[in-house]
């Protein structure tokens, strides 16, 4: 193989090594992003909940609830940097009676998962600017406190790292956030409902929640979500008088498995770009460089021997004209010398 072939191998190997370094630093961040076409449905259930029957204005106890949350990506409003989600949450009881219904539209950074102001974001159809994390955590989630948005309270609260646990065959980070009782609206109700003698009174609607999230850290996927939600009506003194909803909602086992699979798939793609591809490119590139250097060095050592054969080992039959004495004598004799001697003989 010629020296130029070795040089080509060295160049190709160097290119692959550069690619191995660039893949996790440049390529992976450009490709590992929240998908624009996000599509998922999670189901949470609560046993023995308490809800307010607005038809009779009375509490119902021992109710089983199911919450369906659908997340759909708005591809046309997303781009390389942001994703836009349309979200709907419907809570029903065992009789398929609707307890609550809410909608949400939010834009988020595709890498950090933080909410960004964009794209006619709203809550229940009313324009609203989100903040903090929503529906997912960032790639490479850390053991620290994040700001996580609560749609009912309409503000972000600290979600603090609590511990590392095993869930659905994955190592997950557990985060907890607490929403202290906060008034979210005011409604008119019969005074008798709050123990008042007045026919109609204004009642403050208060909301509190303790939310726990189990997050697969590489992908940021929430494998399990749980919340202990309490909504009440308070009288003028600030005392809770009636419960609108009191429920412990948590992802079902099937939803946890679904989320775990999504986390594993995302983690596999991340591992491919950050570990497998760089290692393969690096090893292949190093092999090509070593082979190329060997070929170049070997060719350089053999070249002097080839030159020696060409100069010293040529056949002597190629040089007869250069060794003939006669032309040499003729060229060195004085002009006319031979004939002058012949003329001096008697």
UniProtKB/TrEMBL annotation:
| Region described as Disordered: spans on this chain | 306-346
Which InterPro entries does its entry note? PorA (IPR021424)
Q: What are the protein's UniProt keywords?
A: Membrane, Transmembrane, Transmembrane helix
Q: Which residues cross the membrane?
A: 272-296
Q: What is this protein called?
A: DUF3068 domain-containing protein
């Amino acid at each position: 193989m010629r020296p130029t072939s070795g040089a080509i191998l060295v160049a190709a190997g160097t290119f692959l090594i550069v690619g191995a370094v660039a893949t996790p630093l440049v390529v992976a961040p450009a490709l590992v992003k929240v998908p624009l076409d996000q599509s998922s449905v999670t189901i949470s259930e609560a046993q023995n909940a308490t809800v307010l029957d607005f038809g009779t204005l009375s509490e119902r106890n021992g109710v089983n609830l199911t919450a369906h949350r659908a997340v759909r990506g708005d591809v046309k409003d997303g781009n390389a940097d942001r994703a836009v989600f349309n979200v709907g949450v419907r809570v029903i009881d065992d009789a398929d009676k609707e307890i609550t219904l809410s909608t949400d539209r939010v834009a988020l950074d595709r890498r950090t998962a933080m909410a960004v102001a964009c794209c006619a974001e709203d809550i229940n159809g009313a324009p609203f600017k989100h903040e903090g994390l929503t529906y997912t955590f960032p790639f490479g989630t850390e053991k620290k406190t994040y700001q996580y948005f609560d749609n009912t309270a309409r503000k972000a609260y600290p979600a603090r790292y609590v511990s590392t646990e095993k869930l659905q065959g994955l190592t997950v980070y557990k985060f907890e956030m607490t929403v202290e009782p906060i008034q979210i609206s005011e409604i008119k109700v019969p005074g008798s409902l709050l123990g008042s003698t007045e026919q109609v009174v204004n009642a403050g609607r208060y909301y509190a929640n303790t939310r726990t999230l189990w997050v697969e850290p590489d992908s940021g996927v929430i494998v399990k979500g749980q919340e202990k939600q309490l909504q009440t009506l308070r009288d003028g003194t600030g005392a809770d008088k009636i419960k609108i909803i009191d429920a412990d909602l948590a992802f079902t086992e099937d939803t946890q498995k679904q989320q775990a699979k999504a986390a594993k798939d995302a983690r596999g793609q991340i591992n491919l770009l950050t570990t497998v591809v760089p290692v393969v490119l690096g090893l292949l590139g190093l092999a090509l460089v070593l082979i190329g250097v060997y070929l170049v060095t070997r060719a350089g050592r053999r070249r002097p021997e080839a030159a020696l054969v060409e100069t010293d080992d040529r056949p002597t039959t190629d040089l007869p004209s250069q060794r003939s004495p006669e032309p040499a004598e003729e060229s060195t004799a004085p002009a006319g010398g031979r004939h002058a001697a012949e003329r001096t003989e008697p």
